[in-house]
Amino acid sequence: MTPEPAASQTLALPAIGQHGRDMLSHRLLDAPPERVFQAFADPTQLAQWWGPAGFRNTFAEFDFRPGGHWRFVMHAPDGSDYPNESVFAQVVAPELIVFDHLSGHHFEMTLRLEPVGTRQTRLHWQQRFDTAAECDRIATFVVVANEQNLDRLAAVLAGLAPDGLLRVLGPVEGSG
Q1: Which end of the chain is more exposed for a tag (fewer CB within 10 A), N or C?
Q2: Quick check: 3 pLDDT over 90?
Q3: Is pLDDT above 50 for 107?
């Protein structure tokens, strides 16, 4: 019997889907689907891990339901700000999250959570862009950024801050 890979190990290298419009990543996480789903559903936790390494987030709106809006700003380590707006299309606890990213480069994000035994989740991460050309144009930075994003999620699930330090939950920036 072959043991499952460690939580921070990528199961497959990030790839472009067969139609050239999809950016795909898969990750085995050391947490059950309910816990992984909660790390997205709770804006305090989500703000800690969403985005590439070194980024932080200020959430203005997070309405986690079909038709609900998610508006936030990603703050880069160099001081640049990146406003983001998305609308949730599907939310099925604890197995599926789909949203349309409307600002900047448009894509549909699908996160599928598949249980592996009772203590792990295989996360399937798919970004579908409008065209293969758009997917190709941003692939050089999105592939790396997505892997960093998943590393940060694994750290939060392990009870660590994305920088590897023990974390203390507090209020989400911009939530009052």
Answers
A1: N
A2: no
A3: yes
